[in-house]
Amino acid sequence: MDLILKPERVFYYFEEISKIPRESSKEKQISDYLVAFGKINNLETYQDEKNNVILRKKPFKGYENHKGVILQGHMDMVCEKTEESSHDFEKDPIELKVEGNYLKAKDTTLGGDNGIALAMALAILEDKSLQHGPLEFLATTSEETDLGGALFLKEGILKGSLLINLDSEDEGVITVGSAGGIEIDISLPIKKEPLIAGKNYKVKVLNLLGGHSGIEIDKNRGNANKILGEFLEILKEKTLIKLINISGGSKDNAIPVSSEAIIYSEENIDEKIKEVVSEIKERYAKIESTLEIMSEIIETKFSESFSEKSFLRYLKVIKKIPTGVYTWMKEYKDVVESSDNLAIVKTEKSDVKIIVSLRSSDRGILEELKNKIFVILEENNANYDLSNGYPEWKFKKESYLREVALKVYKEMYKKDMKVEVIHAGLECGAISQKYPNIDFISIGPNMKNVHTTRECLDILSTERVYNYLVELLKEL
Fold first, then answer.
1. Which residues of 90-120 are buried (b: 16+ CB within 10 A; e: fewer)?
2. Which parts of the chain register pLDDT below 70?
3. Cβ atoms within 10 A of the Cβ of 84, count?
4. What are phi and psi for residue 150, nearest 5 degrees?
5. Cβ(358)–Cβ(184) under 8 Å?
6. Could you confirm whether 143 is annotated as catalytic?
7. Distance (Å, rounded) from C-alpha 28 to C-alpha 34?
8. pTM of the complete model
9. Which residues pair with 187 in a beta bridge?
10. What was the pLDDT predicted at 54?
11. Strands ordered across the beta sheet of 96-99
12. Per-residue pLDDT tens for 324-340?
């Protein structure tokens, strides 16, 4: 970069980091760079088998008895590029550019998530004039894929009692909890029966708003798998139909925006379909104004369909499995505590595969929701397996770190920080499994479009957050 951005040393290190390949599970080079930095700056340096790095800086004179603070971020980045780009993430540096107040990358992801955490921490660790108590920096690996580095951490390695995670993306927001989650992989057995000559219809539910099944689950958006189930149930009450195939959704962490079914009838049911389409669209008009339900007769011949019993059982399971917000936090009434997402449906030869993604910041509530779904599945002779999942970061009613962080921000910027429990996963949850007594918060500068080639980092926001972090360390 030709421009000098402030804080100068933060952006110096960000540029240096951007020269080093750091795709998830390929962090050895950046890990070794951090180790070399530690040795050059006379820091106590630790590197484990997963390439996690811990750097320890002695307290400023007079701050020896202050609480130990851990700064934390992850080394890896999501590596995406435009179709036209020839960028090689295993050897090429990220090409940085400034547009207005934003730092961006040319034709690739920027890696602000979470390179800015590394850059801020290194700038603090090298600056001998900063006032703070005992200080550690924990840089983890594989956050973007499986939280592998954070989950691998050994007990007793971290010394501090306060941890500031630098992986948030909204200035002025202090995150104090995050959800854990599991996935239920369901296999609903189906029996088939032969079809006689008739008409085959393809019905599609599409153009829903969708969104992230954690962050946007509170928006009360429609679920395409649920809506199609409702459509089929109402149509079945009006006329004789059989189900041949059904599918919907593509990702376990996305609210499904489309689904489709192939159904059979011995007669023309165009008018009945129109009636049900009208009824469903009216039902969802307030929350899904762009919803479309399309149908067409298809010429493809099918020799068999779901049996009547299998069809009814599928409709029952889809109807009974809850989706959306399950509970709200008692401490923050507008913050989701637990939810589930009926994410994916796919017809296979002898069963229907269904994936349901569950999240909660309270392990007990997650168990309750999981068991509620288990009862539904067992009542309908469905088979199921659980994923390993990821741990929650449980909100604490009392937090010294949170209270000091809120006070310092108010004093600096004359406004309150927004306190937030996010309905997605953060490494604080993984770290807290082995370090339950650490007091955690998460902060960060404004970033947009992370994990895409449109990713950008707000330069002025970065300066404000860095200055705030320096003052917070001084106060702690």
1. eeeebebeeeeebbbbebbbbbbbbbbbbbb
2. 1-2
3. 7
4. -65, -40
5. yes
6. yes
7. 10
8. 0.79
9. 353, 383
10. 98
11. 96-99, 102-105, 456-458, 447-448
12. 999 998 877 888 999 99
Residue identified by tokens 């400023």 is 60
Amino acid at 134: P
Q: Which residue has the tokens 């000091």?
A: 404
- Residue 254 one-letter amino acid: A
In angstroms, the CA 443 to CA 167 distance is 7
Judged by DSSP in three states, 2 sits in coil
Give me the catalytic one of 143, 171, 230, 455: 143
Asked if 404 contacts 176 with a C-beta cutoff of 8 angstroms, the reply is: no
The one-letter amino acid code at 53 reads V
At 460, which amino acid appears? Answer: L
- Is residue 229 classed as helix, strand or coil in its secondary structure? helix
Encoded tokens for 426: 């953060």
The single residue listed with the structure tokens 């409709």 is: 315
Q: How distant, in Å, are the alpha carbons of 127, 142, 233, 280, 351 from that of 378?
A: 60, 36, 21, 29, 15
The backbone torsions φ and ψ at residue 46, rounded to the nearest 5 degrees and listed phi first, read -135, 135
Which amino acid would we find at residue 77?
M
Q: What is the DSSP secondary structure assignment for residue 455, as one 8-state letter?
A: -
Instruction: Write the CB contacts of 379 (distance below 8 Å, at least 6 apart in sequence).
Output: none
Residue 476, classed as helix, strand or coil, is coil
Q: Is 8 a catalytic residue?
A: no
What are the Cα distances from residue 346, in Å, to 107, 277, 354, 355, 417? 35, 23, 7, 9, 44
In the set 76, 136, 183, 362, the catalytic residue is 76
Tokens encoding 417? 């920080």
pLDDT given at position 341: 95
SS3 274: helix
| Helix axes of 112-126 and 8-18: crossing angle, nearest 10 degrees | 130
**Bridging pattern class, strands 162-165 and 69-74:** parallel
Instruction: Note the pLDDT of residue 161.
Output: 98
Q: What's at 325, amino acid-wise?
A: V
The four Cα atoms 413, 414, 415, 416 give a dihedral, to 10 degrees, of 90
